[in-house]
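User: Here's a structure from my thesis project, written as structure tokens. My advisor, Dr. K., wants to see whether a designed sequence matches the one we expressed. Can you design one independently, without my sequence as a hint?
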């Protein structure tokens, strides 16, 4: 089916309305991106999902951004964005960011140093509950305004990633629009959905559960985006997403399933891009009995968790689900992060050893083949997102392998609307989850080294080890890369040994693109980086634009 024809049918109405507003496309065309979920938040201080991050990062510019090398130590390779340049103090405890005087918010107001200072106060305000508050607050002391275009970031201590902590986490926010908004209600405020940013695209329309439409920001200080519009359309069912991709309704499909690679190759108008993985998937155990503070009768025992991990042939399961690109998880990280090394602890696959360990712990097999101890059967349920085909495929494999050692696993597949409250309130036994990480390992603090605030998606099993917390803090604070690596190694070894989760697999990083889409080199951790440089092949965009304007 012709992609231009389908796209014309879907979006003619929206584009004609835009033309009536005096905001007609300039001929760059509309890029249609398929996404599995509607982000709960896109506001920079509040998002905690990959899709929220993707949209936020094309609506809001950072002070500086990672280069293709993904270096997070020092400032080597970082690309100027809102900051034209920066300078370090002699003691490395200050960085002065000099802003581009041409930078503007989408309402036309200039971006100023006060916006950087304001963002720091908002991110670190406990009433906001920003997922990035710990990362920023642990390293930064304050932000001051030297002049209207110079923001000075003051650090509590030197560290290997201190520049990255600011560039990656502290996104300037429009003080003139947000200054009067109550901090304790900013998550539900109109400002958090209006999204007046400073990036190459502005929000044109947001229909919750359906799509977010972005339009090229006029007068963008680094040059107008080549595309006129980007439409993120949300399709919860993977089969529907693939049908739309193959049917010509999508130009981009993120997180393309490895199992469908052979089918994709039959479509000559599509191509596949494979990059390093920055997402790991896990089956986490709840350390507590539901939402209570009582220890879980099964998972509060470290030896039981280790036995459950030993019983699973994770390498075979990863290959079963993903074929030749399947890779078992190494721990709460991916092999693409600089904190990974091959000497990290690994709980080996040993099903017989797992059975012997459970025997030694007093878990005896009953007449029904299920183990029990102290009146508790070794039986529990796992929640699986209905939006994840790989996790739905791997869950029965886990079920079958655990059955061989006397474990009864019930699989419950839920949609995001049902799953979210259960995770937020911790009313579950086990959960098959996924974390998208950055090239930096500093996110380990929020995901496994801290007890997350109520309602957060981080650390859903409520695991805490003070040794891990101390080592992660030391790794983040280390001024030498070698010291940082050692601290993170110690923390990761401790987490893996404690087995708060089974590290299932690293998500293959596959993105499907229409062959008519032209892109710069894709950044391995974020395909949407430099989205303003994307375009359509010569002749494709003009024809599409002309068709969209037709009655």
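Assistant: Designed independently from the structure alone:
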């Amino acid at each position: 089916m012709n992609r231009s024809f389908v796209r014309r049918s879907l979006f003619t109405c929206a584009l004609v309305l835009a033309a009536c507003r005096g905001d007609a496309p300039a001929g760059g065309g509309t890029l249609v991106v398929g996404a599995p979920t509607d982000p709960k938040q896109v506001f920079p201080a509040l998002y905690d999902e990959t899709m929220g991050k993707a949209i936020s990062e094309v609506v809001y510019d950072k002070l500086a951004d990672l280069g293709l090398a993904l270096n997070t130590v020092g400032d080597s390779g970082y690309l100027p964005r809102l900051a034209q340049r920066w300078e370090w103090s002699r003691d490395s405890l200050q960085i002065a960011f000099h802003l581009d005087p041409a930078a503007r918010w989408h309402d036309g107001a200039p971006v100023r140093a006060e916006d950087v200072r304001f963002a720091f106060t908002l991110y670190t305000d406990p009433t906001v509950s920003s997922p990035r508050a710990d990362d920023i607050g642990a390293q930064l002391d304050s932000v001051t305004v030297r002049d209207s275009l110079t923001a000075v970031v003051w650090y509590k201590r030197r560290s290997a990633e201190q520049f990255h902590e600011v560039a990656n986490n502290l996104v300037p926010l429009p003080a003139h629009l947000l200054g009067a908004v109550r901090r304790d209600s900013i998550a539900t405020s109109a400002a958090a959905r209006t999204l007046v940013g400073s990036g190459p695209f502005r929000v044109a329309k947001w229909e919750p559960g359906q799509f977010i439409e972005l339009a090229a920001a006029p007068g963008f200080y680094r040059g107008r985006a080549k595309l006129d519009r980007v439409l993120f359309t949300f399709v919860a069912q993977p089969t529907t997403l693939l049908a739309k991709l193959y049917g010509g309704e999508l130009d981009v499909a993120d997180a393309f399933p490895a199992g469908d690679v052979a089918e994709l190759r039959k479509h000559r108008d599509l191509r596949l891009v494979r990059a390093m993985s920055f997402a790991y998937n896990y089956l986490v155990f709840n350390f507590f009995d539901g939402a209570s503070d009582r220890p879980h009768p099964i998972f509060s025992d470290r030896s039981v968790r280790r036995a459950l991990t030993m019983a699973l042939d994770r390498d075979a399961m990863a290959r079963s689900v993903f074929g030749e690109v399947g890779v078992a998880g190494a721990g709460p990280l991916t092999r693409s992060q600089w904190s990974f090394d091959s000497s990290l602890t690994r709980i080996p696959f040993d099903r017989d050893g797992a059975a012997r360990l459970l025997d030694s712990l007093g878990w005896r097999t009953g007449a029904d083949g299920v183990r029990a101890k102290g009146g508790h059967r070794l039986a529990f349920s796992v929640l699986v997102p209905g939006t994840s085909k790989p996790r739905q495929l791997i869950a029965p494999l886990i079920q079958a392998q655990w059955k061989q050692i006397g474990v009864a696993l019930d699989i419950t597949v839920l949609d995001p609307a049902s799953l979210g409250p259960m995770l937020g309130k911790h009313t579950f036994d086990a959960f098959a989850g996924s974390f998208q990480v950055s090239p930096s390992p500093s996110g380990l603090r929020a995901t496994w080294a801290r007890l997350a605030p109520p309602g957060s998606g981080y650390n859903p099993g409520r695991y805490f080890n003070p040794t891990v917390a101390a080592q992660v803090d030391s790794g983040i604070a280390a001024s030498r890369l070698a010291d940082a690596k050692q601290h993170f190694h110690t923390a990761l070894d401790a987490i893996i040994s404690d087995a708060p989760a089974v590290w299932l697999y690293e998500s293959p990083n596959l993105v499907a693109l229409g062959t008519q889409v032209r892109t710069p080199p894709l950044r391995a951790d974020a395909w949407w980086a430099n989205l303003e440089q994307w375009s359509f092949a010569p002749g494709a965009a003009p024809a599409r634009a002309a068709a969209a304007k037709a009655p």
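When you compare it with your expressed construct, this may help: The chain is about 30% helix and 20% strand.
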